[in-house]
Structure formats: C-alpha cells, structure tokens
Amino acid sequence: DLSGMSFWILHGDCDITVPYLQSERLNDHLLDYVPAENIHYEIAPGMGHASDPLYSDGHLAELDQFLKEKLSD
Predict the structure, then answer these.
(1) SS (H, E, C) the chain
(2) Is the backbone of residue 28 left (phi > 0), alpha (psi -120 to 50) or beta?
(3) Separation of alpha carbons 65 and 71, rounded Å
(4) What is the value of pTM for the model shown?
(5) Model pLDDT for residues 2-40, shown as the tens digit of each residue
C-alpha cells in the first residue's frame, strides 16, 4: 500500500540519459495509488541529467520544506 507514502520527482527536460517521459509515466502511475498532495512532480526546463542547477538553493529549499511537511505527518 503506497497511499501513505510521499514522492519528490524533479527531472530535467533536456536529460538524454533518462528521458523525462520516464518520470512523467512514474508520476501518472503513482497517482493511481498515492494522493496527489503526496507527490511533488516537476519538470525542470533546460536541465540535463543531474545538472548542477537541479541542486540550486531554490530546489533544495523546496525539497527541505517538502520533507519537513511529510516527515512531520
């Protein structure tokens, strides 16, 4: 049962290692089992696989906030 789990998905749309459509499919399938509010799904424009900007202060702050909210539940 995945319904109580939370997921953070951030994928660059210029990723040539793992196509972002894989994350899109993962998100779509998760929505069959997990409430939408438990999923953060974001496509990062212009980012490749593990691009440094994916680890920007802004993205890391969003991840930190997501984890604080989900872990305090």
Answers:
(1) CCCCCCEEEEEECCCCCCCHHHHHHHHHHHCCCCCHHHEEEEEECCCCCCCHHHHCHHHHHHHHHHHHHHHHC
(2) alpha
(3) 10
(4) 0.86
(5) 888 999 999 999 999 999 999 999 999 999 999 999 999
Residue type present at position 24: E
Does the pLDDT of residue 64 top 80, yes or no?
A: yes
pLDDT surpassing 80 at residue 68: yes
With 0-12 CB in 10 A as exposed, 13-18 as middle and 19+ as buried, what is 36?
A: exposed
Residue 32's identity, in one-letter code, is: D
